[in-house]
């Protein structure tokens, strides 16, 4: 580590370094800095290409209601679908992580974990295919039942979409997609619970569930939250599955099972971009910038939560 | 080949923490110098500062002078990499390169430094080094097997062969037998006695019998308490240290009345 | 409904309790029995109406859970019953996760296997209306773009990981680590927009090139490579680095000749998994590379086809008659899954067969 001796340290002579070392260390550092540059570049180029839309008169923006009028329903749709996904996926993912770490036979655990990880490996467009062809039609009778019995709740007011390609379906597909992310992080945290804590609980005569409740969940809480936030980040930015599954009509509505749904930012870009030109492209890029900012904030928060936990766990 | 090392007023720091303070010592060529003392007293740190190995830990630095036959190891133009080529090191746990065969492990010093050498010369060097480490007869038929296929004692001798293959002037050994069984330990000790004909050897050991058996000179390191720097308490011929040491602390430590 | 099942189970446990146990506990198979009974009831219920296998499964799980809870509550008390309830819920949760996996693979294989033939691999869509045609151009496009992505991402990712593990200290290291984490969360569509914005600035709007897709995918792949390489390099024992330093080997040679060869299996696994992650990405390619019907093998000249985008357009714009294009779309989706799963298997094989024998 002669390379990084700081000159402020007393008595540190300028160390001799070989050219090979200097070049190699320099290029390694350069690659690291390139990452910073890329990230800054993403922001800078998006801003540069979004600028025309930001300054354009509102009549030129598609929809004719200005940039905010164009982007806001999309942001609403994005948040709605992601929240549905999060609400459905988080409890499931935590339960799965518990199953794999504390309930499944030890010899099977790794294999079962691999099965869940496979869900993460499937390309999102394939989820979209499956959502349209398999899941959406299967959900129609369920939505009908929801409308008949719970129609008084605005969420299920209906009328039920005949294709099943609704906001709720999109949310469910997203839930499946983020399930492995949340469960992987929860699993990692649950495995780090000190055996001592667990044995202490068991020694008090606790049942397995009480042990989990007393020792595992409190310890893993911030890990679960961080994992859920990462899942949220993924759900916010997910594109193809939503673009395929969701049948879009625009507008802001909380009705989850009808055929009138707001689109999401990402799906809207994917659907509109190939056929767009001129100011429309800039508008789409501006909406992408909004998505970038939202996911960046969510991911930073998530990483901050996860890393803070890592600092306290003493695992490193 | 073997060279003497003169250390004067050496302070070793980790960041702002003074780990070893005020060491003055002369290490004789063609002899074995043993360093003993309780854990955490800085004897390994001192050993590693002799070939600038401690610098691989971030924040580590020294004050003072280490001179080998007139060459200032910490001089402004001294390259730590060159220093380490002249002063080899054997570690506590045998650490052959797992991706390399026995042959490649011994040739590693030459190969990794991309020195060009004819195949016959390299063969010769490997054979000479393995013979020097008393390992040739055991491995000559399986030079292409991975180094990690050997037993612990053989692995350690392989590491010694690897170290002497670069033909250093000085060989530092950091508790080379602490991970080995008594028979392997004996083999290494015999080897050290042979090697001292060609190298200056400095060995850190927790085993006082070992120090008494193999070394000519012995240094005793100690520290006054936790957080205090380690110091070289006494440096004398081994016989004197073990029969009639100058310092009370040395006697206490050697006779087991320590602490 | 739960009442119907409880008599059988309580009967069994009552026998057990009278068999000499002072504390009343249900036998091991009590939960299983509850679920079997629930299944029976569910099947009977469904036979009365129209038979729906999904509903049978749902009824079985719900009834079984309720039955197990009630029986346990009566026999073992509240705490044990809650424990059993949670066990049932946790197992069901795993079951729920497996359902989409199985259904998805089943659907895609079922609909895609038909066109997985020689023509699909051998011909493009030039001059194809309706029947026949293939995805040769899209497969080649995916291979070329993925190869380019790997060529861009692996050196940058690996060098960054080397910086973080071997050189990095202080603030720069911390901020790079943090931003790599953040970069993993960049939505793929945003990566596509970035590549488009970058190239549009230099080549004018409406530009579509294969290399743009590779740049976009690199933004997604680099952080994955960095993270996995970092983990693997950290696993290389420090003793090996020290052994090399002690031989007078400069640091950079130590890294190149000792650290990387020792970690090569893990690095290979990580890179393979990173490729698997980007090979199915659709959105960035949709907006940077576009689609074409002919074969274009030059990533620096105009639009290219790629397998995911091909699948997307074949499904959403099938033309007339639609069924042939839709069949091709499903086959492309199947091929994508096979590609991703194949890469996952390769990754596992690499880590199994190329790991150095450390003997520790």
From TrEMBL, chain A:
Topological type in the membrane: Multi-pass membrane protein
Gene Ontology terms: cellular component: plasma membrane
Primary residence: membrane
Keywords linked to the UniProt accession: Cell membrane, Membrane, Phosphate transport, Transmembrane, Transmembrane helix, Transport
GO biological process, one term: phosphate ion transport
Cleavable signal peptide: none
Gene3D superfamilies: MetI-like (1.10.3720.10)
Gene Ontology terms, MF aspect: phosphate transmembrane transporter activity
Localization: Cell membrane
Domain ABC transmembrane type-1: from-to ranges: 75-302
Residue ranges crossing the lipid bilayer per the database entry: 23-47, 67-100, 112-136, 166-185, 239-257, 284-306
A Pfam match: BPD_transp_1
Known role: Part of the binding-protein-dependent transport system for phosphate; probably responsible for the translocation of the substrate across the membrane.
Family: Belongs to the binding-protein-dependent transport system permease family. CysTW subfamily.
UniProt-recorded name of the protein: Phosphate transport system permease protein
Natural source organism: Geodermatophilus sabuli
TrEMBL record, chain B:
Domain of life, per lineage: Bacteria
Coiled-coil regions, chain positions: none
Keyword terms: ATP-binding, Nucleotide-binding, Translocase, Transport
InterPro entries in the record: AAA+_ATPase, ABC_transporter-like_ATP-bd, ABC_transporter-like_CS, P-loop_NTPase, PstB-like
Gene Ontology annotations of biological process type: phosphate ion transmembrane transport
Ranges for domain ABC transporter: 5-248
GO CC term (a single one): membrane
Molecular-function annotations in GO: ATP binding; ATP hydrolysis activity; phosphate transmembrane transporter activity
Name this protein carries in UniProt: Phosphate ABC transporter ATP-binding protein, PhoT family
Organism: Geodermatophilus sabuli
UniProtKB/TrEMBL annotation, chain C:
Keyword Cell membrane in annotation: yes
Pfam families found in the cross-reference section: BPD_transp_1
Topological category with respect to the lipid bilayer: Multi-pass membrane protein
Subcellular location: Cell membrane
TM region(s), chain numbering: 26-45, 51-72, 84-109, 135-164, 176-203, 209-226, 258-279, 329-350
GO CC annotations, alphabetized: plasma membrane
Keyword Transmembrane: yes
Record's keyword terms, sorted: Cell membrane, Membrane, Phosphate transport, Transmembrane, Transmembrane helix, Transport
Superkingdom in the source lineage: Bacteria
Domain called ABC transmembrane type-1: residue spans: 139-347
Molecular function GO labels: phosphate transmembrane transporter activity
One Gene Ontology biological process: phosphate ion transmembrane transport
Protein purpose: Part of the binding-protein-dependent transport system for phosphate; probably responsible for the translocation of the substrate across the membrane.
Family: Belongs to the binding-protein-dependent transport system permease family. CysTW subfamily.
Matching PANTHER family: PHOSPHATE TRANSPORT SYSTEM PERMEASE PROTEIN PSTA (PTHR42922)
Protein name per the record: Phosphate transport system permease protein PstA
């Amino acid at each position: 580590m002669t390379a990084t001796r700081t000159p402020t340290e007393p008595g540190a002579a300028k160390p001799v370094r070989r050219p090979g070392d200097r070049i190699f260390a320099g290029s390694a550092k350069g690659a690291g800095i390139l990452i910073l540059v890329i990230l800054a570049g993403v922001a800078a180029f998006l801003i540069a290409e979004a600028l025309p839309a930001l300054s354009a008169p509102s009549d030129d923006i598609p929809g004719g209601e200005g940039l905010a009028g164009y982007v806001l329903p999309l942001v609403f749709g994005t948040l709605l679908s992601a929240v549905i996904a999060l609400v459905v996926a988080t409890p499931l993912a935590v339960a799965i992580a518990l199953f794999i770490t504390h309930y499944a036979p030890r010899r099977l655990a790794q294999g079962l974990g691999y099965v869940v990880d496979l869900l993460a490996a499937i390309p999102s467009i394939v989820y979209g295919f499956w959502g349209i062809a398999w899941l959406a039609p299967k959900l129609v009778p369920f939505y009908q039942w929801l409308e008949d019995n719970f129609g008084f709740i605005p969420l299920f007011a209906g009328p039920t979409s005949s294709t099943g390609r609704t906001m709720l379906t999109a949310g469910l597909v997203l839930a499946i997609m983020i399930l492995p992310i949340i469960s992987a992080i929860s699993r990692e945290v649950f495995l780090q619970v000190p055996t001592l804590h667990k044995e202490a609980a068991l020694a008090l005569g606790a049942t397995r569930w009480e042990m989990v409740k007393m020792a595992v969940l409190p310890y893993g809480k911030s890990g679960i939250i961080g994992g859920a936030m990462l899942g949220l980040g993924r759900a916010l930015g997910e594109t193809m599955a939503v673009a395929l599954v969701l049948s879009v009509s625009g507008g802001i509505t909380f009705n989850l099972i009808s055929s009138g749904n707001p689109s999401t930012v990402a799906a809207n870009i994917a659907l509109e971009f190939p056929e767009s030109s001129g100011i429309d492209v800039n508008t789409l890029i501006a909406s992408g910038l909004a998505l970038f900012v939202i996911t960046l904030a969510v991911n930073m928060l998530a990483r901050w939560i996860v890393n803070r936990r890592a600092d306290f766990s003493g695992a490193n | 080949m073997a060279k003497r090392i003169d250390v004067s007023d050496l302070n070793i720091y980790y960041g702002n923490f003074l780990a070893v303070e005020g060491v003055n010592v002369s290490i004789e060529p063609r002899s074995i110098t043993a360093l003993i003392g309780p854990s955490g007293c800085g004897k390994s740190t001192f050993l590693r500062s002799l070939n600038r190995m401690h610098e691989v830990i971030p924040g580590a630095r020294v004050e003072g002078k280490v001179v080998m036959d007139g060459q200032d190891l910490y001089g402004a133009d001294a390259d730590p990499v060159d220093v380490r080529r002249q002063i080899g090191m054997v570690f506590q746990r045998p650490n052959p390169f797992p991706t390399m065969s026995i042959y490649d492990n011994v040739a590693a010093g030459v190969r990794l430094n991309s020195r060009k050498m004819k195949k016959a010369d390299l063969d010769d060097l490997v054979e000479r080094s393995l013979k020097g480490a008393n390992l040739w007869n055991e491995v000559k038929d399986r030079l292409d097997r991975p180094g990690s296929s050997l037993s612990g004692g053989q692995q350690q001798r392989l590491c010694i062969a690897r170290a002497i293959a670069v033909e250093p002037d000085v060989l530092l050994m950091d508790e080379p037998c602490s991970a080995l069984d008594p028979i392997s330990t004996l083999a290494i000790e015999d080897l050290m006695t042979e090697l001292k004909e060609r190298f200056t050897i400095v060995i850190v050991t927790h085993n006082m019998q070992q120090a008494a058996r193999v070394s000519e000179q012995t240094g005793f390191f100690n520290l006054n308490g936790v957080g205090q720097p380690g110091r070289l308490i006494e440096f004398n011929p081994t016989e004197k240290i073990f029969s009639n040491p100058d310092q009370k602390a040395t006697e206490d430590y050697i006779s087991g009345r320590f602490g | 409904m739960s009442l119907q099942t409880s008599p059988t189970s309580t009967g069994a446990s009552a026998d057990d309790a009278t068999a000499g146990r002072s504390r009343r506990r249900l036998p091991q198979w009590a939960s299983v029995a509850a679920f079997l009974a629930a299944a029976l009831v569910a099947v009977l219920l469904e036979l009365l109406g129209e038979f729906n296998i999904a509903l049978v499964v749902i009824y079985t799980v719900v009834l079984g859970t309720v039955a197990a809870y009630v029986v346990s509550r009566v026999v073992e008390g509240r705490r044990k019953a809650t424990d059993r309830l949670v066990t049932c819920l946790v197992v069901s949760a795993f079951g729920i996760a497996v359902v989409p996996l199985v259904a998805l693979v089943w659907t895609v294989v079922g609909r895609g296997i038909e066109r997985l033939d020689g023509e699909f691999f051998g011909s493009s869509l030039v001059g194809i209306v309706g029947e026949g045609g293939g995805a040769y151009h899209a497969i080649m496009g995916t291979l070329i773009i993925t190869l380019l992505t790997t060529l861009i991402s692996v050196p940058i990712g690996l060098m960054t990981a080397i910086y973080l593990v071997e050189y990095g200290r202080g603030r720069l290291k911390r901020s790079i680590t943090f931003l790599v984490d953040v970069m993993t969360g960049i939505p793929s569509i945003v990566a596509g927009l970035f590549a488009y914005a970058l190239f549009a600035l230099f080549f004018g709007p409406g530009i579509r090139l294969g290399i743009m897709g590779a740049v976009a995918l690199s933004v997604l792949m680099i952080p994955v490579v960095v993270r996995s390489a970092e983990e693997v390099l950290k696993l290389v024992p420090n003793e090996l680095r020290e052994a090399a330093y002690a031989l007078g080997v400069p640091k950079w040679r130590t890294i190149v000749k000792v650290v990387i060869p020792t970690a090569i299996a893990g690095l290979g696994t990580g890179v393979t998994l990173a490729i698997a992650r980007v090979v199915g990405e659709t959105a960035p390619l949709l907006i940077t590379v576009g689609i074409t019907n002919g074969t274009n093998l030059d990533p620096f000249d105009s639009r290219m086809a790629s397998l995911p985008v091909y699948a997307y357009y074949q499904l959403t714009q099938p033309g007339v008659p639609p069924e042939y294009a839709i069949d091709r779309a499903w086959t492309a989706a199947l091929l994508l899954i096979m590609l991703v799963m194949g890469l996952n298997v390769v990754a596992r094989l690499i880590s199994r067969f190329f790991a150095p024998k450390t003997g520790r």
